[in-house]
Write a structure and sequence with these properties.
510 residues; Rossmann fold; five-stranded parallel β-sheet; alpha/beta; 17 helices; single chain; Beta-Lactamase
């Protein structure tokens, strides 16, 4: 009897396991069939593939609605937004080793908030060790700081840094050591680490330009005919036709201008990622269109709008270019920024912290699509991450700009609100994104809300780009990039948002 019972239970268990093994197979089959059906029947996907006409007529540009609180934002009252940066926060152009040493010597005497600003503004990572070589803290941008503290930065030569920090603590001597970075495919990648011991405390501060080193390390994989000088940071200088991208002596997608700026010129820098850079050629970008519109509104005035957009750049990398921005002496910087933070760093952190069941559901994409949102972080968590990364970087940028008398204006970022789209439009955008578009949509919603609140707190001009693009399918190619009519609409929105704001300064030009 017992043998029969064991055989019966074994048979039942086998059938159950066999059935369970079929669940992911059936789910993947259902997902494949659904995707195939969508690819063959979705009118937007068919049009994008050139197999059908676009299912909608191109709309007329809507009237621009301005942000309500900006009625109180005037050029004269935003001359210097307090607090402004101290001189040690402002990056120098072509800083000498002696100047860098003198700057770093100030670091131990700063408070914790100032140390974070120091690290961000100079695009340096500063690690604090005790005399035993134990890592106590990291000062850097939020994303890099998290990775180093959690031991997830696999590129760092952690053992060599700890050993050298211990030696510096015992010797009491400042030392600079060149150490290799563990970068696959680039064994020759090295960077300098500067060790500053403090005799009174026995601690050692280690300074390293990791942001530039990591970006520069990718250059070995860039083809000779590439437009890149440093990937996701700078284009080659003085690029000329027949390339659709021409660059000035700074490597920006803009014409050369006079430096220092003449007194009769009003100059605007537009900074951001590919959503600022975008356009089939230089004249079709939104900064170039913005310049045309402003010149027509202020005839006889010298107005220059420079496109400083760099594909893939993140807010933390902007500080590697900040000395160039300051040398160009702009009157106003317009930032359409934060998308690459959200699409990369913040989504990377979210993926690292998501619960185990989320990964299990990846094996069942059809069912998991409906269940994964139950495991997302809370909106409060999303907002907190954005404050710690993008908004913290904006505040450092604002302080430096205010120190130099430069106004800063921030744009909201256009995106398709996934939950409010018709199903066929959600399907279309999902084919354009390699990550979960619903998470991206939630993050962009939080990003725009934080940017708007930050502008209100700091009395900065807020430019409501997203709020004025009510039909994203007509203007957005994918989750963030514009069609040509979308680029033109963005230029219209920025023009209408800043024309009255800059009018006193422009009209005062001789």
């Amino acid at each position: 009897m017992r043998v029969k019972l064991w055989l019966k239970r074994g048979l039942q268990g086998g059938i159950l396991l066999l059935g369970l093994s079929y669940i992911p197979v059936l789910d993947r089959l259902a997902d494949l069939l659904a995707r195939t059906y969508v690819q063959r029947h979705n009118p937007y996907i068919l049009a994008d593939l050139g197999k059908a006409p676009w299912p909608r007529e191109q709309p007329a540009a809507p009237p621009v609605k301005l942000a309500l609180h900006d009625a109180a934002i005037a050029w004269a009252t935003t001359a210097i937004n307090e607090p402004v940066a101290d001189e040690w926060e402002v990056p120098r152009k072509d800083e000498t080793p002696d100047q860098a040493t003198a700057r770093r010597a100030l670091f131990p005497n700063l408070d914790e908030e100032q140390r974070s600003m120091f690290a961000i503004c100079h695009a340096e990572t500063v690690m604090r060790f005790d005399s035993r070589g134990v890592l106590l803290n990291v000062y850097s941008d939020w994303f890099k700081r998290l990775n180093i503290l959690d031991g997830k930065d696999s590129l760092l030569p952690a053992a060599d840094i700890r050993a050298t920090a211990k030696q510096a603590a015992h010797s009491g001597q400042t030392v600079t050591v060149t150490l290799p970075l563990d970068l696959p495919g680039n064994p020759d990648c090295k960077t300098d680490f500067h060790f500053l011991p403090v005799r009174e405390t026995g601690e050692v501060y280690v300074f390293a330009g990791l942001e530039y080193a990591y970006l520069r390390a990718q250059v070995c994989n860039i083809p000779q005919d590439s437009r890149w000088d440093v990937n996701a940071l700078r284009y080659k200088r003085n690029l000329r036709s027949p390339s659709p991208l021409t660059s000035n002596r700074y490597g920006f997608r803009a014409p050369d201008v006079t430096v220092p700026k003449p007194g009769n010129v009003f100059r605007i820098l537009c900074i951001g990622g590919s959503t600022t850079h975008e356009g089939s050629d230089n004249p079709s970008t939104y900064p170039a269109l913005l310049q045309e519109r402003l010149k027509s509104l202020f005839p006889g005035r010298q107005i220059e709008v420079l496109n400083c957009g760099i594909e893939g750049i993140r807010t933390r990398s902007q500080f590697l270019l900040l000395a160039d921005y300051l040398e160009l002496t702009p009157d106003l910087i317009v930032a359409y920024e934060g998308i690459n933070d959200v699409a990369n760093e913040i989504q990377d952190v979210w993926e690292d912290t998501r619960p185990f069941p989320y990964d299990v559901l990846k094996c069942a994409p059809f069912v998991g699509y409906y269940l994964r949102p139950l495991l997302w972080p809370t909106e409060k968590t999303f907002h907190g991450w954005i404050k710690d990364l993008t908004i913290a970087n904006f505040e450092c940028l604002r302080r430096v700009c205010a120190c130099k008398g430069i106004r800063l204006a921030l744009c909201s970022n256009a995106y398709p609100n996934y939950d409010e789209l018709p199903r066929d439009q959600r399907q279309f955008y999902s084919t354009k994104w390699w990550r979960d578009g619903r998470v991206y949509s939630k993050l962009l919603q939080a990003l725009n809300a934080e940017i708007k609140q930050y502008c209100a707190r700091k009395h900065l001009l807020y430019i409501p780009v997203n709020e004025n693009i009510t039909s994203t399918i007509d203007y957005l190619l994918d989750f963030c990039h514009m069609r040509p009519n979308g680029i033109a609409l963005k230029a219209d929105i920025v023009t209408q948002s800043i024309k009255d704001y800059i009018a006193p300064a422009v009209n005062a030009l001789k």
